[in-house]
Amino acid sequence: MTILIFLLLAALTVGCAIAMVAQRNPLYSAIALIGVFLGMAGIYVTLAAPFIAAIQVIVYAGAIMVLVVFVIMLLNVEEEVRRPIRLRYLIPLGVFLAALLFAETAFIIYFIETSAYNPPPATQSNVGLTASVGTGLFTKYLLPFEITSLLILMAIVGAITLARRVPALEVGGRRMQAATTESEKPSAAD
Amino acid sequence: MNIYFGLQTATQQFADVNLWLLMPELIVASAGVLVMLVDAFTKRLDQRWLTGGISLIGLVAAAVSCVWLWTSWTGPTEAFFGMIVLDRLRLSFTLVFLVVSALSVLLSMIWVEWERLPAGEFHALLLFATAGMMLMASGGDLVMIFLGLELLSISTYVMAGFRRTDVRSNEASMKYFILGSFSSAFLLYGTALVYGATAMANGTPGTTNIREIAQRLDTALYPPLLFAGAAMLLIGFGFKVATAPFHVWTPDVYEGAPTPVTAFMAAGPKAAGFASFMRVFLFGFPFVVAAGTAQRLHSAWIAVLVVLAVITMTVGNTAAILQSNVKRMLAYSSIAHAGYVLVGLVAAGAASDLGQRNEAIAAVVFYLLVYSIMTLGAFAVVTILARSGDRRTEIEDYNGIGFDSPWLAFAFSVSLLSLLGVPLTAGFMGKVMVFSAALDQGYVGLVVVAVLNTVVSAYYYLRLIVVMFFRERSGAWNAPLVPASMAIALALTVVGIFYLGIFPGRVIEVFQASPSVISRLLGT
Amino acid sequence: MDLSNPYIQAALQFLAIFITFNVVLMIVAYTVLAERRILGFIQGRLGPNRVGPGGVLQPFADLLKFIFKEEIVPDKSTRFVYFLAPLIAVTAAMMTLIVYPFGPRVTLPYFGQVELVIARFDIALLYVLAVTSIGVYGIALAGWASNSKYSLMGGLRSSAQMISYELSLGLSLVGVILMSGTLDLYEIVEQQSGWYGFKWNIFPQFIGFVVYLTSAIAETNRVPFDLPEAETELVAGFHTEYSALKFALFFMAEYINMFTVSVLATTLFLGGWNVPGLALLFSPGSIPFAVFSVIGFFVKVFFFLFLYIWLRGTLPRFRFDQLMSFGWKFLLPVALLNVVLTATLVWLGVL
């Protein structure tokens, strides 16, 4: 039963992931990515980590991807045109790296299967439960958690600084024009 | 349903909060928030003085608290479950960061007005970046180091693109962002692999705490994963400190970013990267005598770093010769200096006894302090000469300005000579310290390469001085007015270069000394 | 029949889900009818009363009409997304139905002790929020895929509105979560059974309740927050280009959402199936107790549904910038304040 559910979810995840890369329409790619996130959330549930699953859906599928879809919709991104690939020599490199990644995964699985590591079974573990995540966040990981808030605050400041309209600053009591062509004009010191 | 299971344990444990240990970081971050608030609630009248002043006060207060921690702290040296550690490495690096930030604030105060940029945001970002750097030095856990790095990186990406109307600035920001995220991913992947590799046979999950990693190296269940993780970490840090072959972003980003930001980027993030680099590799994968995984890992990363140091120095210096743009030249020079610092890092890593290791660490910190001061000095002059919009940054623009702006040319020459490592300047002392630490560990070949590189570097540093004083001026030239804040910054750097070059003993002693010695030194 | 066999359990679950869906669809159908009739009365007219006695068969007539209408697909639409969107909307709306507890623990013959909820799990509340957040796609994609300016504007407005108010909605729930210390809806309802079934969360969490109610109305795009389909400006908003059954799906999704937010309000703030004083009359666990509890639950839910209709008959529509600034500059700070207040009180041990 569990293996059947896992296979279904894995098929959804992998299928959507391939579709995401293969699709030429950016919106289809975005939808496929949402599918990937949902499939992964399902897999988290089968791994007895329901909290992570819910957060995965709320944060990634529900918030971040909405933003992505918005951007695609508003920019009205056209279907990607098939162009001659300039960096053709990178293809074998990509294949090689992908093979390396697969080899690494296989290697890790092999090591874990043959190692002496003996994790507690999923039913006994409370790793993905809400209470244990909360406990972790507010005890051992309290400081990183708080630093993250600083990080987000700073990121907001930065994003708004870069994104807002060029302001007409008022410096020293004078109203100054936005510096659009300022770098072309000779400055007073010249 | 064992919903309450976690809650009960939560009430039994407590979060190991110790705000005193976090004081410098807290002060800097609060100053950043304060700058934002003041910026939001004041009219835009002379704002650069206001926000810049608050930033400076915050940085000085942080330095005071840092000294206080160093001299009179007797409590525990870890807090937040090992997330924050208090040791010499952290405190000495913290002082370096504070110096860098204070000089950057001085550099940028008038510049934001020249460029019509929002001063409040810039200073807030600078302070947050400083907090990030400090957390990178103080973090005792890979998670903290990563967060500090992100805090630093993201604010630096924004600052690099701060002059939004300038295409070069945008390009620099974008390049830095993409490659920086890439390197952060390396770092994160390395962290994950190390975490996985340090799991224990009895079912204990892995750890990201650096001290615990060091203890678990020999019992690591998956040594190859550990090696892969360490390699990823090395690549991640290598990106951040711009060692060859991970340096390719540096020249473009340094050239395109606004010059005061370049100054900050060349000094601050590099030093912070080295702080974390040393924290992770010296304390996480330390020297051990007994043969085993830990020993193999140690000799592996030392060998890699030796190679990296050689490549970095050589690439940086040879490429710098070919540049025609001063900012690009200084970028390659910063790459070369990262190579010199790596020599010291190798020495610290290879040191078998604790005293020698501490000396080597102190040498590296001293070198980074010196490097920060002289590179900030050089970029300060570049900022003044470049004018708004960074228009005059080609070497030709410096033709014959030496006798028209003697003080600027003097300050620039001092910085360049110090970067080269002429005796009596700080750069000389820094190189002597680092190279002698490497010699103590028997890396004669490495030091020979480093010295040869220094000789090569003489060409491009001296060329600039020659251009300034002995070349005919091309085109019209008005000597720029040097604003007060810039003048203060330049005076500080020149004084610092000579002070650290002539009387380095006291500072080095502070960096090397155990806390009791320092209280004696300061108590006199 | 062995009840502990997982396959039998799964089959029973499927049966329960099937029944629930059908019941909810009936409720939805009659909510629509009730809305039309009540609006009629509010506006001094009769409303539909021709099909069947007093109009009770009107929903079925509407359904037949939807089925037999011509399907019109806009020429330049993005076909796949165009068809996908209503499915997403209605699926997301229906998926939350399984977690709401609608009655107390009851001892049934043959089945033994049963909790009247389809799926009870640790993170029910987060699940609700997660699934709701997926619902945005239905509307956003519908607006985009239709290739019409009205649809696009409606879809954008609607998604922006839902994302903005989702924050206040989630934050208004935090107060309740802080008080009860769990995300399990069944547990939350049970904790409200004190004071003879009158220990409802609405009393300590009144601010949270008001914020929740307001943002829930905005979440479901109802009057006075129905800007996405403001007919004076946008024809019909994101579903302008939809016809026949696909339109019916959107329509259904909207009313199911109305129903589910009402159920959530009942569960979290009005004590769910707790009827004051019922425990004095019947012993908890007996069948009549359960029956009256379920009735009490639905009475509360219908009260909320009536409130929706009432508001629609009473209030004018916001302007879009008013809507946004109300959500971000008033509702969100109030919700945050409520969280801080509740956390402080819980910490002090008052709540």
TrEMBL record, chain A:
It is a multi-pass membrane protein. It comes from the Bacteria. Keywords: Cell membrane, Membrane, NAD, Oxidoreductase, Quinone, Transmembrane, Transmembrane helix. GO terms for cellular component: plasma membrane. GO terms for molecular function: NADH dehydrogenase (ubiquinone) activity; oxidoreductase activity; quinone binding. Its EC number is 7.1.1.-. It is found in: Cell membrane. Its main location: membrane. It catalyses: a quinone + NADH + 5 H(+)(in) = a quinol + NAD(+) + 4 H(+)(out). It is an enzyme of class 7 (translocase). The chain crosses the membrane at residues 43-75, 87-112, 147-166. Pfam families: Oxidored_q3 (PF00499). NDH-1 shuttles electrons from NADH, via FMN and iron-sulfur (Fe-S) centers, to quinones in the respiratory chain. Couples the redox reaction to proton translocation (for every two electrons transferred, four hydrogen ions are translocated across the cytoplasmic membrane), and thus conserves the redox energy in a proton gradient. Belongs to the complex I subunit 6 family. This is NADH-quinone oxidoreductase subunit J. It comes from Pyrinomonas methylaliphatogenes.
UniProtKB/TrEMBL annotation, chain B:
Keywords: Cell inner membrane, Cell membrane, Membrane, NAD, Oxidoreductase, Quinone, Translocase, Transmembrane, Transmembrane helix, Transport, Ubiquinone. GO terms for molecular function: NADH dehydrogenase (quinone) (non-electrogenic) activity; NADH dehydrogenase (ubiquinone) activity; quinone binding. It is a multi-pass membrane protein. Its main location: membrane. Its EC number is 7.1.1.-. It catalyses: a quinone + NADH + 5 H(+)(in) = a quinol + NAD(+) + 4 H(+)(out). It comes from the Bacteria. Residues 140-456 form the NADH:quinone oxidoreductase/Mrp antiporter transmembrane domain. GO terms for biological process: ATP synthesis coupled electron transport. It is an enzyme of class 7 (translocase). It is found in: Cell membrane; Endomembrane system; Membrane. One of its GO terms (cellular component) is endomembrane system. The chain crosses the membrane at residues 20-42, 49-71, 91-112, 119-137, 143-162, 174-201, 221-239, 274-294, 300-322, 329-348, 360-386, 407-430, 442-462, 482-502. NDH-1 is composed of 14 different subunits. Subunits NuoA, H, J, K, L, M, N constitute the membrane sector of the complex. Belongs to the complex I subunit 2 family. NDH-1 shuttles electrons from NADH, via FMN and iron-sulfur (Fe-S) centers, to quinones in the respiratory chain. The immediate electron acceptor for the enzyme in this species is believed to be ubiquinone. Couples the redox reaction to proton translocation (for every two electrons transferred, four hydrogen ions are translocated across the cytoplasmic membrane), and thus conserves the redox energy in a proton gradient. NCBIfam families: NDH_I_N. This is NADH-quinone oxidoreductase subunit N. It comes from Pyrinomonas methylaliphatogenes. The gene is nuoN.
UniProtKB/TrEMBL annotation, chain C:
The lineage of its organism: Bacteria, Pseudomonadati, Acidobacteriota, Blastocatellia, Blastocatellales. It catalyses: a quinone + NADH + 5 H(+)(in) = a quinol + NAD(+) + 4 H(+)(out). Its EC number is 7.1.1.-. InterPro entries: NADH_UbQ_OxRdtase_su1/FPO, NADH_UbQ_OxRdtase_su1_CS. It is an enzyme of class 7 (translocase). This is NADH-quinone oxidoreductase subunit H. It comes from Pyrinomonas methylaliphatogenes. PROSITE patterns: COMPLEX1_ND1_2. Pfam families: NADHdh. Signal peptide: none annotated. GO terms for cellular component: plasma membrane. Keywords: Cell membrane, Membrane, NAD, Oxidoreductase, Quinone, Translocase, Transmembrane, Transmembrane helix, Ubiquinone. Belongs to the complex I subunit 1 family. It is a multi-pass membrane protein. GO terms for biological process: aerobic respiration. The gene is nuoH.
